[in-house]
Amino acid sequence: MNGISLIPVTGIGEVQDGDIIAELIAAATTLEEGDVVVVTQKIVSKAEGRVEAIDPDDPLAHKAIVEREAVRVVRRRGDLLITETAHGFICANAGIDLSNMASGWAALLPVDADRSARRIRDGLKARTGLSVGVIVSDTFGRTWRKGVTDVAIGCAGVAAVIDLRGTEDALGRELQVTEVCVADELTAAAELVMGKASGVPVAIVRGVDPSWLREGSVADEIIRPPSEDLFR
Amino acid sequence: MNGISLIPVTGIGEVQDGDIIAELIAAATTLEEGDVVVVTQKIVSKAEGRVEAIDPDDPLAHKAIVEREAVRVVRRRGDLLITETAHGFICANAGIDLSNMASGWAALLPVDADRSARRIRDGLKARTGLSVGVIVSDTFGRTWRKGVTDVAIGCAGVAAVIDLRGTEDALGRELQVTEVCVADELTAAAELVMGKASGVPVAIVRGVDPSWLREGSVADEIIRPPSEDLFR
Prior knowledge:
The structure is a homodimer of 232-residue chains. Helix content of chain A is 23%, strand content 25%. Chain A contains 6 helices and 12 strands.
C-alpha cells in the first residue's frame, strides 16, 4: 500500500448562510479522483443557517439551547452536560458550541449531516467531474480518555465502517476485530492539519484504499442502537 | 501549515521475544528528524515477551487470562467483557487478543507502554541520530459508536494531549475546547496505512507540528482518573 497525504485547504474565508460549500472548496483547491474531503461541522452549520442568536451577556443562554436541543441528558456534573441528540450522538452540550462563532451566535448541529455530506459530494461532482468522499467532522470528548478528538458526524461516498469479517490476519487466522471505523480515523487524521485555532475548516485525505469509496452513512453505520449499548 | 504524510513501513517480518524494535525499524526504513513513528502493540508485546501459551482447543483459555489480567470488570454481556486494566485502560477483554498471533498464543499488553515507547525512541536516536516521537498503538472499541479505532497506549517524544487554553479561535474568541488528544489522532491516522489484515506493524507520520514533539505520556496525560470519570 502506498502512503496517504493530509492536505489543509486554506482560503475558504468566513462562511455565510446560503453559501454553497462545494463551490468554496472547488475554488480554493484542486481535487483528485478518490480524495476524501473532510469539512468541519461549523462551516456546514453556518452555510445551512443552523445558527442561533444568543444574548452574549446571559451566562445561561448557551445552556438553554443545549437543554432544548438535547433529547436526553445522559450525565450531568456541574456545568457539564453529556447529552443524547436527536441524531443519536452522545456528546457534551448537544454538540452546540460558541468557538469560531461571532459573539452572540451559537452553531447547532446540521439536521442531517449525512445529507449535508451528500450535498457537498454532489456539488463537487457537478463542478469538477470527480468522485470524492465527503465527511462532516465535529469535536467530541470520550469516556475514560482525556482530550477531545474529531469524529465523523456525516459522510457520503466513503464508508463509515469497513467490515473485515472473513478476512485473515497476516498469519492466516481469521480476524477477531472485524469492524473498523475508517470514517472516524480519516476525520482524526484530517484534524492534524486543521487545528482548533488556525481556522482551516477543510482538509483533503489523498490516497485512501479505493475499496472504502462506496456509499456510506454515519447514522446507519456508526450510531450504536440503545439496545446494543452498555453505557447509557 | 504544510501537509502531513502517512507512510507504511513494510518488511519488518515476524517479531520474536528479545528483538530490538528500533533495530528492525531502522533497517526497514529511512526516518527524518521530527517524524512520529507509530508501532502496533502486538509487535511490542512479542519483542518484550508479553505472550502466553494457551490451549487452542479450550474455548475458555482466552477468557481465563482476561479475567486474571483485568483489575475490574466494568460491564459484562455474554462473552463481551469491558474491563479496566492495571494501566487504567478501559477496553474489551483486558486488551488481550489472538489475532496476528500463532495458534496457541495470546498477547498481553506491555507492562508500561510509555516505557516501551521511550525504549524505541532511544534506540532510534542511538542508531540514526534523529529525534523522533514514538507511539505504541492498540485497537479499542468505543461507547456509543460502532467500529473500532486505533488509540495510543504509550508515547515518548511526542505530546499525548496539547492544551490550547489561552489560544484564540479564528475570530479572536478564546477557545472552549482546549485539550486535544493529538496522540490518538496521530495513531488513528497511522492505522489508515497499516490495516488490520495486511500485517504492516509500523507507520510514519511525517510533517507534524514541531511544537508537539515534546516529552509525552499516555499514562499521565490521557488516562482519566476515576474521580473525574462519569462512566465507570
